[in-house]
Amino acid sequence: MKTVLVTGAAGFIGFHVCARLLRDGHQVVGVDNFSDYYDPQLKHARLRTIQDHPSFVFHKLELSDRNAVAAIFRDAQPKSVINLAAQAGVRYSIKNPYPYIDSNIVGFLNVLEGCRWHGVEHLVFASSSSVYGSNTRMPFSTHDNVDHPVSLYAATKKANELMAHSYSHLYQLPCTGLRLFTVYGPWGRPDMSYFLFTRAILEGRPIDVFNGGDMQRDFTYIDDIVEGIVAVMNHIPQGDSKWNPDSPSSDSSHAPYRIYNIGNNTPVRLMVMIEVLEKAIGKKAAKNYLPMQDGDVPATYADIDDLTAAVGFKPRTSIEEGLPQFVKWYRSYYAT
Fold first, then answer.
1. Which residues of the chain are modeled with pLDDT < 70?
2. What pLDDT sits at residue 255?
3. Which of 100, 132, 153, 260 is catalytic?
4. Which residue among 48, 132, 206, 331 is the one 20 to 30 A from 23 at the CA level?
């Protein structure tokens, strides 16, 4: 067992990853800044479920604070780092761009520097399906070009991939980026559609349905995502001897670097998701139809063949199974 540094430890995915690593017997050092992008009390509540574990240590800090991040690496000496901290949200990035640079660019640079100077064996970092931007060929493949982001959030995630590759090349730092598709489940993010819809339906308010409901998302249950992240952490990349600089693939390299999609490999129409949610809640939703918002894309669909080949990743949870689990948690947490 080893020491693992998890950034974004109070976040939706980060919290679940910490809990899983602790169950597996690892020493876990968690960091988070408790951003008020959404209710910090939910983040505190997540952490309270694991804060008393003898193998868990938590530090509140900003990843953009260079000295604080350096001190964490110096004191903890982690062998693996799972970077899940980021300023999230596609639409929010249009109105509030600066937090995305502070957290996703400056913060990620500080993590890379910590890994470089402290002998980290593997950096696993969260990228996003948003990097596919204007791409329309489905399913999204890591072999495709992703040079046309349609939001600043997506641009910062593409930048993370490029920054990680440079450190992998220069310092032989093993790095694996995971392009996460729409993640849902208990303890989820309140800004996500399934969470917003659940709250509105239970409160008797109409839900906002964008693009006439003609959207598709590769909804991926949190337990499947965590399983994939942990498997990837234990699968340290090597340089690809078949990588061809005359015809370079963006998902691998001569350096110890890989990019994978991690999703459910089964896109679901937004209206189908709403129907499943209505059934789980036991109540129909009043719908307010709106045009698609800036920064949104009509569909996401993950090609996960490479991740399956590398670590045996196979999502097991359908939306018909996963959404009722979220609703059950929501009713319990909010006592509705």
1. 295
2. 96
3. 153
4. 331
